[in-house]
Amino acid sequence: MSFTWTFSKIENFETCAKKYYEYMVAKSVKDTDTENLDWGNTVHDAFRDTLKGKKELPDFLKSYQPWIDRVHGKPGDLYVEQKYGLTSDLSPCPYLAPVVWYRGIADVVRVWDDVAYAGDWKTGKRKEGSIQLALMALCIFQHFPKVKVVCAEFIWLQEAFGDPKAITKKTYRREEMVVLMAEIMPRVQKLEWAHKTMTFPPNPSGLCMKYCEVVSCPFYRVGGKR
User: Fold this and answer.
1) Range of lowest pLDDT (47-56, 77-86, 189-198, 203-212)
2) CATH code at 83?
3) Residue 226's pLDDT band (cuts 50, 70, 90)
4) What is the domain range of residue 59?
5) Is residue 221 in some structural domain?
6) 80-139: per-residue pLDDT in tens?
């Protein structure tokens, strides 16, 4: 099978290669945090259906209606939960194409003229310093050749609408993607090398104490300092 990657694969691999292997490659362990996963899926599904005009938000999610209205208030063609694929030379391709190299999903996209907006709903705790927005912008640039600027956002739904902390916003220009790929490629190459050599060493930390179920790891429930 050819090598493919996503943002979550890079993030999980860099957190702990051993855990990444057991959860995502060998699949010997399943994620037990089903409550948070179920909540995230519920919110994303409801937002998708509402943005597509299929349903109204259910009563228990009505407090999120301003976010839906905000998207509808933006100009351009609307795309919801779009799955994008890129080949190793960054050519656009279907998400499940045999030649796919990178896979990314954008929760909501609006495209007008040479500008695009991309939003990613976040139901978990606020987390900064991610390359996920940049990769989302890269997919849009490659799948929409006329787009020159992408305004990308994380929307942190645990924060109240109107709170400045509720949005992480970044703007990307097409010419900046060359620099992005130069920065990300060493990280991708490490992941690819691990897959080729089947080398996935543990990276002990405080996360081992409560957030890992890999009982075969010598640091299980022991952890260590980074």
Assistant:
1) 203-212
2) 3.90.320
3) very low
4) 7-209
5) no
6) 999 999 999 999 999 999 999 999 999 999 999 999 999 999 998 888 767 999 999 999
Domain contains 49? yes
- Token pair, residue 11, equals 């993030």
Task: Count the domains in the chain.
Answer: 1
Q: State pTM to two decimals.
A: 0.91
